Amino acid sequence: MNNAEKTLIHTSHLHPLQLVTSPEPKPICHACNMQCTDRCFGCLKCRYYLHITCATIKKRLDHPSHPAHTLLFELTPTYDSGKFGCNACGDEGSTFCLRCRECNYDLHLHCAALPHKVNHHSHNHPLSLVYENPNPHSNGTPYAYCELCKATVDVSKWFYRCNTCNFGGHVACFAPNTVEALSPGLQAPAPPPSPIPPQPQAASQVGNVTNEELQMQLIAAQAKAAQSMMVANAMHNAGNTFRYSFDNVQYTTRWM
Ligand SMILES: [Zn+2]
Ligand SMILES: [Zn+2]
Ligand SMILES: [Zn+2]
Ligand SMILES: [Zn+2]
Ligand SMILES: [Zn+2]
Ligand SMILES: [Zn+2]
């Protein structure tokens, strides 16, 4: 990977972000308020950091949990409170979200990025992510216990389930390291030496580019990010193996 490929211009920050090894203690991702993993995108000067997943998620997302409308990326919640309630996990968010304005449907980026299917060593079949209570007659009472932690499952939130066996449970139990799994930094193999000679870096040019040039770079970076997320999404469902293509480097991450 050459230096140009490690730079990302993101709408949320004035300066280009570099793909870096996370400093210690690991910083908090500005998008999701969760701790960054081994590598992240960051502006070292401003101490502004984003998970790789959070920095590169699609800005328009058609998600099966909300088939009626396309979800759009928002930098800040548009509610007066400055917060949104995530329709996936029920928790509040105060920074980036994917949102349907028409329906007030909001998702954390990391919730939107949850794999639609997971393989777990505790079960023979793949588990599917369930977005809606499959048993509406239960009147909202928890109908199921999590097979891993044995606590009740609040079916108003997303959960994982094997439809054949009615086996399943919490997202946090069955996909505990999703954000980590989605960030290729943790277990990424060393990228192969790039055959392409290093290109001029966006970062080093920023000091003397015009606004228009910066705008063009921004659009190009966004298009590129959207493209790599599309590749990532297309490769999402390979069981417990997550393949992630980022800037033409392919990463493979497995979880148990
Ligand atoms: Zn994040
Ligand atoms: Zn900065
Ligand atoms: Zn959420
Ligand atoms: Zn909608
Ligand atoms: Zn559980
Ligand atoms: Zn099963």
UniProtKB/TrEMBL annotation:
<protein>
    <recommendedName>
        <fullName>C2H2-type domain-containing protein</fullName>
    </recommendedName>
</protein>
<keyword id="KW-0677">Repeat</keyword>
<dbReference type="InterPro" id="IPR004146">
    <property type="entry name" value="DC1"/>
</dbReference>
<dbReference type="InterPro" id="IPR013087">
    <property type="entry name" value="Znf_C2H2_type"/>
</dbReference>
<dbReference type="Pfam" id="PF03107">
    <property type="entry name" value="C1_2"/>
</dbReference>
<feature type="domain" description="C2H2-type">
    <location>
        <begin position="100"/>
        <end position="121"/>
    </location>
</feature>
<feature type="compositionally biased region" description="Pro residues">
    <location>
        <begin position="189"/>
        <end position="200"/>
    </location>
</feature>
<dbReference type="InterPro" id="IPR046349">
    <property type="entry name" value="C1-like_sf"/>
</dbReference>
<feature type="region of interest" description="Disordered">
    <location>
        <begin position="184"/>
        <end position="206"/>
    </location>
</feature>
